[in-house]
Give the backbone structure.
Amino acid sequence: MAGQGHTEVSGSSWLIRLGTKVAIGLGVVYQIVVEQKLLLHTFLGRRETGHRVTSPPVGFWNVLAVKSVLLLRQVTGRHDMFDTFLMSTYERMRRNLEAGRWPQGAVQEIPTYTPDDITPKEFYRRHVKTGIPAVIRNMGHPDQDQWNLDFVADKFPELKAQVLDRSVYRVITDDLPALVSRIKEGKVKPFQAALGEREARYFSMGRFDAYFGVWGKLFGSIATYLILGRKQGVNAPMHCEAGLNWYFEVSGTRRWTLIDAEYSWFLYPSSAGTGMRRFSEYLPDAEGNPADAKKYSLVKYAPRYEFELHPGDVLLHPAWMWHKTIGLEDHCLGIRYNFLSLTPMPHRYFRFLQIISPEFWKLSATYVASMLGDPVESERAKASTTYNDCEVPLWQKVDEQMQTTKQNVSVG
């Protein structure tokens, strides 16, 4: 019996490894052939997304210059390479926008519904398939009033959470109950906790699957995280991510800003990281805007959605849509679901930078094997800090900037 069990486990592991390699191989072929058009559209395409938004008149050669610098920075690991040239390119983009009378900071109204206003099938057709973000209000759970940081920590004492230890500027993973007091005291910057099947059942996460058509019914959420808010203020600076996101506000109120991926060049994307997501290069002020607004002057030209999410509200936003969040209450909680679905091209060039990132493929192999049922890779995925490590230099600079400001005020 022992030998048979060992053979079964070994055979299962072999199938999972094979399935992982096949899935990743098909993903590479699809990206190169279908999305990148054999790399012809990577650099020569006029648009980065398939979204129904107006492409900004920033200039083809300016975009090509920015792409080239980002590529060189990622390949060499020198993320300040050609900084003067890059900033002068952004300045040329700004002059093109002014010449074309492009409006500054146009605020759009995000499509908003209640569950009675739209069926899951209609929502899938209008928003998931088109890449248009939307909010559905009042999708709360009967027990939601008691869902706060202390309750979740008591309910799931073995839930692993990741935070940034600001004393040493390192991402650490620990049981959520052990981190609650440090989160409340502001000693750590909270990130997220990966939710498993038990937590999924408790939070009734399966009720959202129908909004993603046949893909949701077949696979459900491929990754689900409890997002741990900090004290009032910037919870997340401007960034974008590779996955299709469905965000459920659990407790507290957050103010969101969304900017379509077609306007990525307005936001000074960083070349650092694994390729799973991208941050803006600028340091944020108290509202998440550039602290040096003069240097990063393109940001104000980006059309945007601005709105608040309250407990029970959900938000859909497509892959690579830029967003920042401001916590309006202490210790907001949310749940982020990543779904598979057919969507318009989210951002062709960011996808290309993923293809050439070894770190991205290492992470992908871990996540795919985890999805296929490999328990070892599942635990490795939960314990990995790679996803959050790219935030560490940003928050260190933010803290240094705050300390400098305090010293200047004190001297003054």
Q: What stands out?
A: The CA atoms of residues 28 and 119 lie 35 Å apart. The radius of gyration is 22 Å. The chain has two domains: 2-99, 107-355+382-411.
